[in-house]
Amino acid sequence: MNNPGKDKSGAWRAACGALLLALVAGCAPSLNMKVQGEVPTPVLTRLPLNMGVYYSDHIRNYTYKENSAERHNWSIASGASQVEMFEQILPSMFRSVQQLSSPPSAGMNSSLDGILVPDIEEMQFSLPSETKLKLYEVWIKYKIGLYDNHGGH
Length: 153
Fold this sequence. Notes:
Helices cover 29% and strands 32% of the residues. The chain has four helices and seven strands; from the N terminus they run αββαββαββαβ.
């Protein structure tokens, strides 16, 4: 039986793998890269909620940086791709999603059911030479704040 969600998941993993392969293919002592990718639309049942979402400058401009003996001056700009991912996923989860231009604040009055504030706490990745497997591993730890329509956390 054909499972559309599984096929899209495989395409996402393949895109990530290709991206990471391009990342390390140069084997350059320093690396500057901007992450680009395509996120498949999740197969979900939407919740009957009208949500707001606020993207801080931190997530919009997130850049992974590492300067070690193995990864000299690595810089991977991934903030824009993270916002694109949430912009693809959230409308699949909720009846409507409205992007907000300012963060939620106490005492605000909104007709929204809730407000999400996603952020990146940490990003790590491993190369096949490090994992001893034939795969690239990316790990992103998100913190997603949930606020009510009056700005309460």
